[in-house]
Every structure is written in structure tokens, then in C-alpha cells.
């Protein structure tokens, strides 16, 4: 296991500067665990918080060695319920036969595809993980990291498997914090805008990234050294309003407005009304 850990950590050091969101890191970890540590299936689950205060468990990444296994066998309510219970119990579990963990029906389907053993590693940290990078993230908030990495194996795994997975994951989390993929625990929500007045009009605007040379789009991120400004820039997709971006990035009001001003003055973004009309940036800069 020691050699695997060294190889994976070396690849991690090379890969993490190229990633722009925590999801990219989780998908990379799932893939590397499957291919370097000879696991059959890896699921990475996290706790997700919402503006209302409720929380749910969310599957953030999955990788499978067996490409022909039907998706409904690998992602279903049976597996999700086991993961949810284990995550809420804060448990790391040593490998056990699949029949001891899942219902008879689920275990029969899993063992049919040689998914004979199941184990998991639990990690908890006060750093915040951003919501999944998709269109369903608007009502979600950055959430303290509660993560479960569960995996299936064909044979009883090496006793060092779980400690090795844990050490690699902890190294990855530390590097993710250093590169701005995970956020410090002291980040705050931007206060909700009032229904009337100039501030609410500003937060309704939609920013759009500007690329002067389409071939060099990837270089724009490298030219933004400040993490908070880069976080706002990477969250811009041409559809989210400033209000939605404030919730998604979890920057406090001062840092959010400073990041917005910087991106406008540097010519990195343009602002548009919800109906598509461009906005006079000079008047906007006066309000920031």
C-alpha cells in the first residue's frame, strides 16, 4: 500500500492546480482509488446543507471498474440509505461481506457482479465544501465537510486499505484548502437583499465572462491569484444572478463586492439585465 500512496500523492500534486471545483477533486479521487487500489466501485458521499437549515446526503462522485454493471445496481435507495446511516453515525467500517450490510435483494444483485465486500472511510472537518457544480445548487449552501468514501471489492481487501484511503484523502483535503477548492469555516452568507432599492437591482444582474481569445480561456483563471475573486469568477456561468452567486460562493458582503468590482474593472466580466440588455458599468462601479 505504501507504494500506491506515494504514486497517488505525486499525481495529486500534479493534478490539483488544474482543478476548479471540489467536484473535480472528488471525481479524481474516486477514479484513482478504483484504478490504483484495485477497488471495484467507489462512492463518495457528503452532507449537503440548504438555506432552510435542513441537510441531506448527496452522492458527489462515483467510479466503477466494471463498465457493464447497470447503473441502477450501483446507485439506488438501498445503497444510499446505508451510506446515509453510516455517515450520520460518523462510522468508518472495516470490510464486511455484502450480505451483512445490505438487504437480501440488494446483496443478491451486488454479489452477482462480484461486489462481495463493502467498507467505508468517514472524514469530518470544519472546512466548508461548496455545493455540487450543477443547476440544482441555487438553494444549497457551503456545508462543513462530512464525507463518506464507501467501496466494494471482489476479494477481502488488504488490512492497510482503509488507513491508506484515509491518509490519501486527508492529504487531498489539505491541498484542496490551500488551492481554494474548499473554504475556511469563517465564510459567511451575503445578507439577503431587500425587495426594493438600488441594492436589490444590483443583485438581480447577471454577469458574463469575457474571453478575448477563445483559445486561451483556461489562462484567465491562472491570471486571478486572489482566491475569493477566482471563486466568484469560476462560479459565473452566464445564467446565475449576482444574488445567486452570493449564496453559492458564500463570500461575505465586503469580499463579494470587492471581487465583483475587481472583475469589472479588469474587464473579466460584463453585467446584463435579466432581459439580456447590457448594463452601464460606470454607474454600477459607483454603487460598489
Can you characterise this structure?
With 288 residues, this protein is of the alpha+beta class. The protein has 2 domains: 177 residues, GAF domain (Beta-Lactamase), CATH 3.30.450.40; 90 residues. The protein is 42% helix and 20% strand. The chain has 12 helices and 8 strands. The strands form 2 sheets. Strands 1, 2, 3, 4, 5 and 6 form a 6-stranded antiparallel sheet that branches. A two-stranded antiparallel sheet has the order 7-8. A hairpin with a 4-residue loop joins strand 1 and strand 2. Helix 1 packs parallel to helix 6. It is elongated, with a radius of gyration of 21 Å. 30% of the residues are buried.
Q: Please bin the fraction of helical residues.
A: 40-55%
Give the N-terminus to C-terminus distance in angstroms.
53 Å
Order of helices and strands: HHEEHHEHEEEHHEHHHHEH
Count of the separate structural domains: 2
CATH topology of the largest domain: Beta-Lactamase
CATH architecture type of the largest domain: 2-Layer Sandwich
Instruction: Give the CATH level 1 class of the largest domain.
Output: Alpha Beta
- Looking at how many chains there are and whether they match, the oligomeric state comes to single chain
| Count of DSSP strands | 8
- Give the helix/strand class: alpha+beta
The CATH superfamily of the largest domain is: GAF domain
Amino acid at each position: 500500500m505504501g507504494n500506491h500512496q506515494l504514486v497517488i500523492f505525486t499525481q495529486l500534486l500534479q493534478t490539483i492546480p488544474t482543478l476548479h471545483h471540489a467536484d473535480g477533486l472528488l471525481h479524481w479521487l474516486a477514479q484513482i482509488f478504483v484504478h490504483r487500489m484495485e477497488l471495484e466501485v467507489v462512492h463518495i458521499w457528503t452532507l449537503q446543507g440548504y438555506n432552510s437549515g435542513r441537510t441531506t446526503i448527496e452522492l458527489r462522485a462515483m467510479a466503477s471498474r466494471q463498465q457493464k454493471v447497470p447503473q441502477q445496481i450501483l446507485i439506488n435507495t438501498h445503497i444510499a440509505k446505508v451510506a446515509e446511516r453510516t455517515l450520520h453515525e460518523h462510522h468508518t467500517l472495516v470490510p464486511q461481506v455484502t450480505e451483512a450490510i445490505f438487504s437480501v435483494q440488494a446483496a443478491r444483485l451486488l454479489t452477482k457482479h462480484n461486489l462481495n465486500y463493502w467498507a467505508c472511510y468517514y472524514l469530518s472537518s470544519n472546512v466548508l465544501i461548496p455545493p455540487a457544480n450543477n443547476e440544482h445548487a441555487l438553494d444549497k449552501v457551503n456545508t462543513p465537510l462530512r464525507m463518506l468514501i464507501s467501496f466494494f471489492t471482489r476479494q477481502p481487501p488488504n488490512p492497510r486499505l482503509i488507513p491508506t484511503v484515509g491518509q490519501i484523502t486527508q492529504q487531498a483535503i489539505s491541498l484542496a484548502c490551500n488551492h481554494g477548492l474548499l473554504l475556511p469555516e469563517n465564510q459567511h452568507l451575503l445578507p439577503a437583499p431587500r425587495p426594493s432599492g438600488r441594492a436589490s437591482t444590483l443583485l438581480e444582474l447577471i454577469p458574463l465572462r469575457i474571453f478575448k481569445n477563445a483559445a486561451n480561456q483556461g489562462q484567465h483563471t491562472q491570471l486571478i491569484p486572489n482566491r475569493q475573486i477566482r471563486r466568484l469568477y469560476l462560479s459565473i456561468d452566464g445564467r446565475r444572478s449576482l444574488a445567486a452567486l452570493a449564496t453559492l460562493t458564500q463570500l461575505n458582503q465586503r469580499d463579494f463586492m470587492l471581487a465583483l468590482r475587481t472583475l469589472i474593472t479588469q474587464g473579466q466580466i460584463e453585467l446584463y439585465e435579466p432581459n439580456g440588455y447590457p448594463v452601464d458599468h460606470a454607474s454600477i462601479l459607483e454603487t460598489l
